[in-house]
Amino acid sequence: MIKVEGLTISIKKKAQTYALLRDVNFSLEQGQTLSLVGESGSGKSLITYAVLGMLNHLEGLEGVVGLPGQKNVLRLSSKELRRFRREQIGYIPQNPRECLTPTLKVGSQLTEVIAVKTDRSVRAGRLIARDLLQSLGFPDPEKVLKMYPHQLSGGMCQRVAIAMAVVSRPALVVADEPTSSLDLLIKQEIIKVIKSVQTEQGFALILVTHDLDLAFNCSNKIAVVYGGRLVETGTAHNLSNKPRHPYTRSLVRCSSRTGADKSIHYIPGEPVSIYTRFKGCRYFNRCLSRLEICETREPAWVNLGDGQVACWHYGRDEST
Amino acid sequence: MPFPLTPGAATEMDPDMVYSRIVQNRFVLACLLLILLYVLISFGGKFYLPYHPNVQNLYEANTGPSCNHWLGTDYLGRDLLARILAGLRISLVIAFFATLINITAGFLVGSIAGLSGGIADRFLTGLIDLFWCIPPFLVVVMLTVVLEPGVKNIFIALGMVLWVPTARIIRGEVYQLRNAPFIRLARMHGAGYTRIVFMHILPNCFPVLLTTAIFSVPDAVLAEAFLSIVGLGVTAPEASLGVLISDGLQSFRVYPWQWFFPVLTLTIFVLCFNLLGDIIHRLFRDRSKGILEND
Q: How do residues B90-103 score in pLDDT, each as one tens digit?
């Protein structure tokens, strides 16, 4: 079980403190998928970096990220972190072509990762690499191993990156917009590949994406991020059918173009900057159903049984 | 085994590697052959030429090209061909060692600055900037004065001056690579610092380093020629291309071949290296060249 509690990141600039992330909470069972959705700059990637321990050097880092066998990733030293990354997590990058070292053959870098992660010799690693690539859908893995990354297509590079991520049978795989640089057909293939490896290995998957449809289709849970805060989490089913937070409602309205309504929707206003200071709700300026209290007081994180939400429309009795 | 890629569709790609493309390139081959020829005839000249480059024969002073002296003789009756080959030998040695010092120092300083960041980076960058401000020839002239003119001292002086631009280029390259996506991915896979530096950052500097090294050879040869022309280079009776050119200049109007042949040798040599560097640079740049007009 993956648990993130009270994750807060703040940076200091000119004696002012700015919160990049505030009070992020979510949990995820093994074998399940959580999608982080939100606008660009909302902090989706930042959450994954924190989970991977990439931000442990920051001073203003608080909270708990728990994984099986790890009490708190955020407190690991850099040596423990390397071990943790080798053994327990996998990372699938956004732009696969730029994420493979251009001067090394695919075989050398894949074998290197395998040899290090599984503590085996390079020769054994090469055999594993071949089998792994074959299981990921390369008909002729030997040939691919002898190629340089620039000779592969984006989709093929992404498969290689997936192979690198899953080779150590990690507990958690983080995919940071794995499909954003690929075309529609390959996009679906890559998602299928990731999902099929997930069914085989049973790791938890955190999927960062802009694509709401993708999130609804292939995840168990969805967390909506706005301005560095989670505004709503819930099951994919609940969020697509009865979104609670006004922001989620607008997002769903923007993404679904089914039925009679064929017009393109958008959310007016602009995303918030982290340098803006808030007393109240971060979504206040753009919210269509704002209340007076929204401007002055920040809504609490309310548990509603089948989901959590941070909005004054819900759970007011408990919090006041 | 789910969703296999269709065999042959995207996997059938240009199998040519950069390195094989470099070797297969006709210009590169021609340049390499010419350079090899230069090296062979200049170092082999000792064994098959009937004349010693420094032995004078005043009876045959200032003769033109003939069967006995293919390129003529100079004002002391020394065979010009023998002297050109001897000069070329010295120029080659100077170019080789100057480049070696240049590349080693430049690579070390540049990569340490780029990798370390922080105070060390600022200090080394400041050092590079400082050296950059000093006119290089002034440094060389001062060094040769302090160290006394001579072959060894010329390449020490040249190496000490030429490393400055190299260090800056390498530093920029390393600095850029340090934040490259594939470095970040390597870190996410739990790769340690040493592994990242030696397997992922430094090998990626190699194309730049190779090009810089190739371009620094003609620089060194020209600098040596310049120093010899102004009288700070190789001392008489030894010959270098620069000395021969400066000797030839003195009787340029009467015996133009004494000036022309050394200059021709030098020009072809420099041209070879410049072409080679240019083509190799372009081949590395075009690694994943597309088919668009300006790709």
A: 888 888 998 999 99
Contacts of A140 in chain B (CB under 8 A): 7, 11
Residue A263 C-alpha from the chain's centroid: 30
Taken in order A87, A92, A95, A97, is the CA torsion positive or negative? Answer: positive
Residue B151, pLDDT > 80, answer no
**What is the C-alpha separation between A48 and A204, in angstroms, rounded?**
13
The C-alpha angle with vertex B144 and arms to B143 and B145, in degrees rounded to 5, equals 90
- A137: Cα separation from own chain's centroid: 24
Q: Which of A163, A49, A26 is nearest to A106 (CA)?
A: A163
Chain A residues 233-252 with CB within 8 Å of chain B: none
Nearest CB partner across the interface for A193, out of B3, B181, B204: B3
* pLDDT exceeds 90 at position A183: no
Q: How large is the average pLDDT for residues B160-173? A: 90
Element (H or E) spanning B288, and its range?
none
Q: Using alpha carbons, select from B286, B218, B268 the residue that is nearest to residue B33.
A: B268
Task: Tell me the per-residue pLDDT of B190-231, one tens digit each, with 9 for 90 and over.
Answer: 888 888 888 888 888 888 899 899 999 888 888 888 888 877
CA–CA separation, A242 and A239 (whole Å):
6
**Residue A280 burial (CB count, 10 A):** 18
Task: Answer yes or no: are the C-beta atoms of B184 and A103 closer than 8 Å.
Answer: no
Strands A307-309 and A302-303: antiparallel
| Min Cα–Cα distance to chain A from B110, Å | 20
Within 10 Å of residue B173's Cβ, how many Cβ atoms?
Answer: 22
Contact flag A102-B287 (C-beta cutoff 8 Å): yes
Residue matched to tokens 């090394």: A104
State both tokens at B247: 């000797």
Q: How far apart are the first and last CA of chain B?
A: 38
With a CB cutoff of 8 Å and minimum separation 6, the contacts of A259 are none
In Å, how far is A110's CA from the nearest CA of chain B? 11
How far is A101 from A106, CA to CA, in rounded Å? Answer: 8
Residue where the block lists tokens 């400041």: B126
Residue A152 to residue B2, Cβ atoms within 8 A: no
The contacts of residue A2 (CB under 8 Å, 6+ apart) are A27, A28, A51, A65, A66, A67, A171, A172, A204, A206
Q: Are A96 and B184 in contact (CB under 8 A)?
A: no
Q: Given the structure tokens 């994943």, which residue do they identify?
A: B288
Contact partners, residue B194, CB within 8 Å, separation at least 6: none
The CA–CA distances, whole Å, from A165 to A90, A91, A113, A162, A250 equal 4, 5, 9, 5, 34
Is residue A260 predicted with pLDDT exceeding 80?
no
